[in-house]
Amino acid sequence: MTTFDRLVGRAGLVVGGDARAAVQVQSLLDAGADVTVVAPDVTASIEDLADRGLLTWLARDLTLDDVRTSAIVLTGHDDGEPAGRTPTTGSVILVGGGPGDPQLVTLAGRTAIEEADVIVTDRLAPLAALQWARPDAEIIDVAKIPGGRSTSQDTINALLVEHARAGRTVVRFKGGDNFVFGRGGEELMACQEAGIATRLVPGVSASIAGPALAGIPVTHRGLTQGFTVISGHVPPGHADSTLDFTALARSGATLVVMMGVRTLGAICDALIEGGLDPTTPAAVIADAAMPSQRMVRGTVSDIDEVARTSGIGAPAVAVVGQVADIPGLCR
Predict the structure, then answer these.
(1) Residue closest to 317 by CA, chosen among 97, 63, 124, 36
(2) Which of 320, 280, 284, 145 is nearest to 210 (CA)?
(3) Beta pairing partners, 281
(4) Third-level CATH fold of 91-204
(5) What gap in Å lies between CA 70 and CA 11, rounded to an integer?
(6) Nearest residue to 115 via CA among 85, 158, 141, 143
């Protein structure tokens, strides 16, 4: 895997906006570079990074001045077609990529990426890890941007089956773990129904890793003997919500909320209404395992306002419980 040194604060330029350009972008970001992408169009993953303020996207053709003002320029990343493959039924490997740092991808996950003919990747997968892919591997970006561009789950399922039926080894690469709010179960069912051999490579879930990287253990002797991970995709009281917030409030366990930036206020209100002490510590960790990682802390009564005032946005993990304020640990 290519690494870059001595780029902190220096200008890095990526020319082009395809999936392999996204890999180069993430490598430069990991090295601390100020990244600019020049391309008339870009993948959803690059657009998402630009929307989050992590890079600058210039939606136009390259100019000589772009090159002159950059410390490093990366280009040349058109995806190639897998070559020399016998048209027999292939397979699908569901690979969890962890919270964002490629060093947290498992060895089994790296091996799968290295051997893949096709990689179907998401916006929160550690894109820099895709440098392990073969030069002829096809990389397909199916990122789902909240409120923006999105690839339907049916389309993703169809892509996995289509390429596997063409005799290819297909890796479905996601952030965290595919089976923790990753819709991996749906993808596994689609492949099994199509008769495609499928296996799972578990990943480090951001529900645990995000708090840990901020110095917050989800369990701690003398404070809590368990933790519960919930989705904040829909708020309490929504027709699609299946959660009992009164039971959660009275459980005594740490509560970890995924995908809950937009609904955090409603969730905290429901927990307080259910009996949780309003002074219970809470924290929100954004961009876990990335150079842009941030954390804010407060209580269950004010953490939503603190996060909004601080400009915290998705992707983020919220933690509610005494573990969110252990002196000497949280940072």
Answers:
(1) 124
(2) 284
(3) 299
(4) Cobalt-precorrin-4 Transmethylase; domain 1 (3.40.1010)
(5) 5
(6) 85
The dihedral region occupied by 289, where left means phi > 0, alpha psi between -120 and 50, and beta the remainder, is: left
The residue ranges of every structural domain in the chain are 11-74, 91-204, 207-325
User: What stretches of 4-93 show up as alpha helix (H) in DSSP?
Assistant: 19-30, 44-51, 64-68
Q: How confident is the model at residue 143 (pLDDT cuts 50, 70, 90)?
A: confident
pTM summary value: 0.81
Give tens-digit pLDDT for 228-256.
Answer: 999 999 999 999 999 999 999 999 999 99
CATH of 207-325 among 1.10.630.10, 3.40.30.10, 1.10.3720.10, 3.30.950.10: 3.30.950.10
Q: Identify the residue whose tokens are 């992590």.
A: 54
Q: What is the mean pLDDT of the chain?
A: 90
> Which one of the listed residues 122, 141, 177, 325 is annotated catalytic?
122
CATH of 11-74, one of 3.90.180.10, 3.30.70.100, 3.40.50.720, 3.30.530.20: 3.40.50.720
Q: Is 244 a catalytic residue?
A: no
| The one catalytic residue among 34, 144, 269, 302 | 144
153-165 and 184-193 helices, crossing angle to 10°: 40
